[in-house]
Amino acid sequence: MTTARPSSAAGSASTVPRPAVLASATIFTVLAWAIIAVALWPIYRAGELVTLAVIAITAATAIALASTLGRWPSWGTLGATVAVFTVVGVPLAVPGRTVYGVLPEPQGLAELFAGVVLGWRQLVTIDLPVGAYEALLVPALVLLLVGPLLTLLVALRGRRPALAALVPIVGYLTAIAIGPQSPLLPISTTIALATTLLLWMAARARHRRRDELAASAVETRGAGVRTLAAATVLLLLAGGAGAAVAGLIAPPENRTVLRTTAERPFSPLEQPSPLAAYRAVFDPAVAELPALIVDGAPAGARIRIAALDSYDGVVFAVGSDAVDSASGSFVRIPTERPPDILPGERTTVTLTLERDHGVWLPTLGQVAAVRILADDADDLRDSFVYNATTGTAALVGGAPIGLTYELDVVLDATETAAGLRAAAPGPAAVPGIAQVPEALTDWVAEITEGIDEPGAQLETALERLREDGYLSHGVDEDEAPSRPGHSLARLEDFIGSAPIVGDAEQYAATAALIARELGFPSRIVLGYGPLAQAGSTTLLASDRTAWLEVSTTAGWQSVDVVSERRELPPVEPEEPVPVVRPQNPAQPPVEEPPAIEDQAPPEIEQSDDEQLDPFWATVLAVLRVLGPLALILGMLASPLVVIALLKRRRRARRRRQSDPALRILGGWRDVTDAARDVGLALPATGTRRELAGVIGRPQALVLARVADRALYAPEEPDHEEADRVWAAADGVRASLLQPLTRRQRWGAAFSTRSLRRYPDRMRVEAGVREP
């Protein structure tokens, strides 16, 4: 006897799904992609993303429904999608290239279609959030238009509708991959997406079961309620397991995403150290020439050219090639950084370059927005890169003389430092310094002897450096000789000479090493200031200086360390008398500081960190990327695992019954359950022989007779007969699966039809209850 297999509820390319199927697929598609839009929020943090998400998801849903109801060919659906993308793309994703905010400019269309290919790479090389800067909303538009469209088309017109759940998973992983290193609600969005997809799968199963019951003319009252209850239980189990795993595994503060491995547009290590050329600005031919015009900066502000925090024994540089230094990472920034990222009162400052500054662009405070005032402003703006850690900017390719630009800045309250006496070392991470001049180590130990607090030690050492030092650039005949440079040999000579003679290059470098010796993270800042007055100021080349910045628990503090210009004392003809350190009997003896090579590296040094084995580093990187996918797939697969375990437990319980009659009835019930799982519509009120006729296997008819005899015959069956029944049941079950495809076998294995309660699911006949 042959029974027609019921049709799928999902529909196909040649059929139109029922309204209930259309509604559930549409609702869950919109919910899933709304969650992905939330995952995109940390990238943009702008109202334009909300507008784009609403319009893109709505348009994609409308196209998919129209394609399904109208039975459009694939080329028609593709053409409609491209047309909608062209019409709404520029106003939504490139709002700066529109007329009246609606009509696209030709340049806007060019940027729109270029952004489909190039926008992804630009997005991972720019500082976040990007807002509506240039065409960086194009990747979000592509994701939120194409993603929902594919999801709904696969669910309504695909041959395998279950694969529609994979599209939101891929979209979610894409949003994470192009997002920030610091995750925003990673567990919440993951669980929300997994819950939505699980509910969708439960709704699809309910629709499919309803069609099957309708095809077999079986009473369907209560079937939907039972399906929903079972799906809810499975969902609670899966959600509880996922929440437990998420609670045990704390998310990392920084995750590995595409922007962590993307090649940066600017590497400061390829540029010469700006501090090495410091002495050149004091050449008499250029010293009195204008270098920078500043308008709008308050009095006391400092204009920074570059911040240098790594030292290789020859020069101080920006960033480090030995460790991963945040100060060496320069990225593009959007048109304006939002107030929640950069809080504080903003000031607009205009600067004009009157002298070549190389690639470095003078700035002050923290830059919130930059505007280039030039004919080629767009090209120059694209070359602007910024490091928020140090507040340093650069123009890739060099800053032209005569360039005028405006900066919206937030001035740091710690730029003008109070005293350092009560300060403690801060948490800032800076590249380690391999070696310090021995004379400097001895000098610091002598100056700070008897002082316990690190802040007081640092303040005392810097005051002593200013008091004992003399300023000389060594370029005029009436100045004391002073060699340029800040290598180990030069600083050894600088601190060991009597008197101490040098300029800001040597003073700032020495002060930075002193701070490191005392445990304070430090860096050198090259620039101008503090400004003597507000308003418009013209700074000369000779106004350039360098100062020290130290990290304390209150933040970075600026400290001027250069001595004032004064006459050098006459040189004593006799040999200097060696200074003997007095011993204080009330204090314990001071231990001699260990040699440099015997000292433990300071906590701030990172260059000697043990490197992880490359193989395990690769494994960890892969796990970080695949972790969210594994979590989602595990949560989606957990209901299937529960179904398989329930069926396995049921079969084992029936096979191990102590009563042979119950074992025989269990074997028969195992055959009928297998028939229902493969899709056969067994009548709910049929006899065993009628059910065997529907199953259509000769062995099934024999099993039906044996089961009837076990219930109604006066003699009791034995265990050998029960064993033969189970062997025959295994054969019937295998024959039912043999003609099925691999996909249909998987569907039967995870089907819940046999787990539901039917009218004849449990009844008492001849005093024996069926298992």
Automatic annotation (TrEMBL):
Annotated membrane-spanning segments are: 20-42, 49-69, 75-94, 136-155, 162-178, 184-203, 224-250, 615-646
List the residue ranges of the region (Disordered): 567-608
Keyword field: Membrane, Transmembrane, Transmembrane helix
Sequence ranges assigned to domain Transglutaminase-like in this UniProt record: 444-560
Protein-glutamine gamma-glutamyltransferase TgpA N-terminal domain spans which residues? 32-392
Check the record and name the SUPFAM superfamilies matching this protein: Cysteine proteinases
One Pfam family for this entry, by name? TgpA_N
Signal peptide start-end: none
- The protein depicted here goes by the name Transglutaminase domain-containing protein
Source organism of the structure = Microcella pacifica
